[in-house]
Specification:
It contains 12 helices and 15 strands. The protein is an alpha/beta fold. It has 2 domains: 57 residues, no CATH class; 304 residues, TIM Barrel, CATH 3.20.20.70. It has a 13-stranded mixed beta sheet. α5 runs parallel beside α8. The longest helix is centred in the C-terminal third of the chain and has 14 residues. The chain is globular, with a radius of gyration of 20 Å. The N and C termini lie far apart (57 Å).
Length: 377
Amino acid sequence: MPRIEWITDVEKLPLSEEEKKKIKKVTEFFPMRLTSHYMKLIDWNNPNDPLRKIAVPFEEELQEWGYLDPSNEKKYTVAPGLQHKYKDTALFLIAPTCLGFCRFCFRKRLFIKEKDVSGKDILLDLEQAFRYIEEHPEINNVLLTGGDPLVLPTEKLEEVIARLRQIPHVKIIRIGTKSLAYYPQRVLEDPDFLKMIEKYSLPDRRIYIMNDFNHPREISRETIEAVDKLIKAGAILTNQTPLLRGVNDNPSTLRELFEKLSFIGIPPYYVFINRPVKGNKAFAIPVEEALTIFEQAKIGISGLAERAKLVMSHATGKIEVVGMDDEHIYFKYHRAADEENAGKFLVFKRNPNAYWFDDYTEKVAEYSFKTSEVGTI
């Protein structure tokens, strides 16, 4: 595994003293971490550079808004590091830190007080979690996340993957990472990682790399090379991104992101409505504006580039934003924690000031039904 050089000291940023002073106020609450690779991608002469907004602290993060756990992940935690929200999927938080700290992170509760992780064991004790998965045969796919699993040494990550491959009912292993944007050298300079992918991504049980590209400029030459090596090693790649104010909140930027990803073999998967997380107000976009941007971005691109669904990762499930007309907005439970909600279709009066599903549910839906019942309506 290559040695990663992190920039955590505000004084090392190529900014004015006044800008550094403002950033230091933020890092008292939300620490900063940048890789040397990502530093080079940022246009430091542009205070509104979208990549700078993704990775560099800014004063608006201190606005009072949101919660630390708006999706109530604690409710679905069944063992240390393990969540089981949807019947067939387990969420494995195997690393409590990341290659870089996204300013819009929805799990910033994991690093909010972190100053230095050098030298500490960042692999959680997962034995209880493994036993839970073994005892629940309905779990056929496991998402490795955190934090970012690729912050772990390859041998540690392989221990987890090898153990999961010993469980017959686990068919899909997913690795959630932003490494191909923040530090593609993590793949390029570690042949053992590619060998591990080749060993465990099997014809009938694939490893999926769930990427987090938010802006087309994150797709560097090194990124494309790393993607090519992963595909040749047998991994399946896809992408998800939140819709972020000041980053990808116009149709042309989002369209370019979709297209560039599809060109290199990373079809879009999800576009998320930004969760109401503490510190994230500056990134938030109202649901109906987000839907408009999303639909306009898909005009004139190939079907492969427009495969993403616009969703909210709500405490009750993944709620897809399906469409709207002059009076109503339409949602569907794409994934539901409660099977009674599976496939349920919901109709609400439009609310242009709504940032989250709860802003609609304060008023009872005009009607709702399961998609399987459409023929009876």
